[in-house]
């Protein structure tokens, strides 16, 4: 009788422990399930001779891989950190441009967490993960705001609803439930215990219907009315492009046994996009 090995039980108190994939053992013509093992990386390899001397050219080559067409390769993790506390925050954004100076994303820079971080610390990083080809690209550098003229060019390519949304959203600010706001307003205005009680009852009935979304949708309606019949919508002054000017760019290719190929480009001279060609040092890193 063939006995299957039971998967290891997670240590007490751990909700997730060493997740992996089932492994089959076909030795002696038997199919035996083994405890899950972490996935291996075996898609490809990376050698120094494969690399372009220009990391932007190398990035474009990887970004354009046909295997990534259905993988949304522009999806990227942007990390920023505030000073003096050093707290780091990350979020998924979309790469929208790669130019002679660096990598450009677009977002709200009026009320967002990233805007507060950048106000105290101009350093930021990007991390791309492309699972179909088992590759990462890590970018570290300093940031600068893209001009309003450049931002408008991209803003005009967005769907109208997205342009309206950019104006309406005070990104990361708290959206209060409409029910609580209504109750407070009525109680103060009426000064009537009976009316206050009725308002309180309405609040209880409405709490499950609105969790703050109504306030956002009200702003959207206001902006829609403001730009009604107007095809051209100006880019908001608090919204636009952020360019990450790289100091280092790492190209990571997964390999078996976690012995990955990693190559680091470090800028050692030149001023990106300012008429002088940037110079880069390339080094292989230990996995």
TrEMBL record:
Ranges where the record places region Disordered: 1-46, 169-212
Enzyme class: oxidoreductase
Pathway(s) where this gene product acts: Cofactor metabolism; pyridoxal 5'-phosphate salvage; pyridoxal 5'-phosphate from pyridoxine 5'-phosphate: step 1/1; Cofactor metabolism; pyridoxal 5'-phosphate salvage; pyridoxal 5'-phosphate from pyridoxamine 5'-phosphate: step 1/1
Coiled-coil regions listed: none
Every Pyridoxamine 5'-phosphate oxidase N-terminal domain range: 73-184
CC cofactor: FMN
Start-end of Polar residues biased regions: 169-188
Segments crossing the lipid bilayer: none
Enzyme Commission number, as recorded: 1.4.3.5
Heme recorded as keyword: no
Keywords: Flavoprotein, FMN, Oxidoreductase
One of the record's GO molecular function terms: pyridoxamine phosphate oxidase activity
Record flagged with keyword Acetylation: no
Protein name per the record: pyridoxal 5'-phosphate synthase
Lineage, broadest ranks: Eukaryota, Fungi, Dikarya, Ascomycota, Pezizomycotina
């Amino acid at each position: 009788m063939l006995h299957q090995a039971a998967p290891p039980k997670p240590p007490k108190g751990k909700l997730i422990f060493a997740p992996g994939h089932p492994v089959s053992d076909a030795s002696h013509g038997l199919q035996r399930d083994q405890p899950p093992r972490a996935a291996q990386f075996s898609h490809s390899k990376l050698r120094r001779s494969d690399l372009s001397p220009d990391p932007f050219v190398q990035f474009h080559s990887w970004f354009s891989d046909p295997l990534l067409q259905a993988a949304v390769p522009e999806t990227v993790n942007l990390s920023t950190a505030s000073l003096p506390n050093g707290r780091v925050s990350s979020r998924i954004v979309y790469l929208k441009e790669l130019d002679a100076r660096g990598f450009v994303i677009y977002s709200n820079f009026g009320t967002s967490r990233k805007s507060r971080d950048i106000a105290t610390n101009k350093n930021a990083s990007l991390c791309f993960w492309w699972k179909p080809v088992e590759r990462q690209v890590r970018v570290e550098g300093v940031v600068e705001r893209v001009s309003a003229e450049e931002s408008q060019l991209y803003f005009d390519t967005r769907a109208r609803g997205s342009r309206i949304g950019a104006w309406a959203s005070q990104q990361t600010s708290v959206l209060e439930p409409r029910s609580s706001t209504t109750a407070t307003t009525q109680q103060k205005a009426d000064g009537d215990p009976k009316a206050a009680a009725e308002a309180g009852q309405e609040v209880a009935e409405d709490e499950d219907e609105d969790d703050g979304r109504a306030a956002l949708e009200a702003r959207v309606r206001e902006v829609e009315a403001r730009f009604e019949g107007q095809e051209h919508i100006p880019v908001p002054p608090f919204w636009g492009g952020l360019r990450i000017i790289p100091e280092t760019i790492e190209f990571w290719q997964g390999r078996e046994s976690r012995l990955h190929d990693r190559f680091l480009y470090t800028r050692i001279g030149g001023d990106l996009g300012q008429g002088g060609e940037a110079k880069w040092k390339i080094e292989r890193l230990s996995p």
